[in-house]
């Protein structure tokens, strides 16, 4: 397993990411995560759509909550796109969060079982067994068009840049 040290920090402390670094221009690896109904969901289930993958450590934190809310608002304006929010939160916790917060335009998905997304996309934080924060945009043909691994886990990603790239492919 590839280990990338000192790529990101959490409150200034360096961490190790597991898995390869994904870059724009690469074919997006397919992955399987779980829906809030415990059903398997694959990236390829949304082939033909622009896919924005919002990666968060846990929806139960302020920045992750704001990131999920922001994409929930933006998703209603993105016809032809789907927003997938991936974390290692349990599917039950994601369902409860979405119901309580009115999150209905973003598909919240859990990578807790196998870390299939996190390991294939290089987002697993070895020291915490959480996913790092970031955004990936995949076009209709399955090509990665934008990747951001947020350097400081407690910081926000560049929403505007990711959304601008996604809109180029709609």
From TrEMBL:
Q: Which organism is it from?
A: Thermosinus carboxydivorans Nor1
EC category name: oxidoreductase
> Tell me, what's a Pfam family for it?
Redoxin
Q: What else is known?
A: The active site is a conserved redox-active cysteine residue, the peroxidatic cysteine (C(P)), which makes the nucleophilic attack on the peroxide substrate. The peroxide oxidizes the C(P)-SH to cysteine sulfenic acid (C(P)-SOH), which then reacts with another cysteine residue, the resolving cysteine (C(R)), to form a disulfide bridge. The disulfide is subsequently reduced by an appropriate electron donor to complete the catalytic cycle. In this atypical 2-Cys peroxiredoxin, C(R) is present in the same subunit to form an intramolecular disulfide.
Q: Please state what the protein is called.
A: Thiol peroxidase
This entry's Enzyme Commission designation comes to 1.11.1.24
From the broadest rank down, the organism's phylogenetic lineage runs:
Bacteria, Bacillati, Bacillota, Negativicutes, Selenomonadales
Q: Which InterPro entries match?
A: Redoxin, Thioredoxin-like_sf, Thioredoxin_domain, TPX, Tpx_Peroxidase_subfamily
What catalytic reaction does the record list?
Answer: a hydroperoxide + [thioredoxin]-dithiol = an alcohol + [thioredoxin]-disulfide + H2O
Q: Where is the active site?
A: 64 (cysteine sulfenic acid (-soh) intermediate)
Q: How does it assemble?
A: Homodimer.
**Does Transmembrane helix show up as a keyword for this record?**
no
Give the record's keywords alphabetically: Antioxidant, Disulfide bond, Oxidoreductase, Peroxidase, Redox-active center
Under the heading SUPFAM superfamilies, the entry gives: Thioredoxin-like
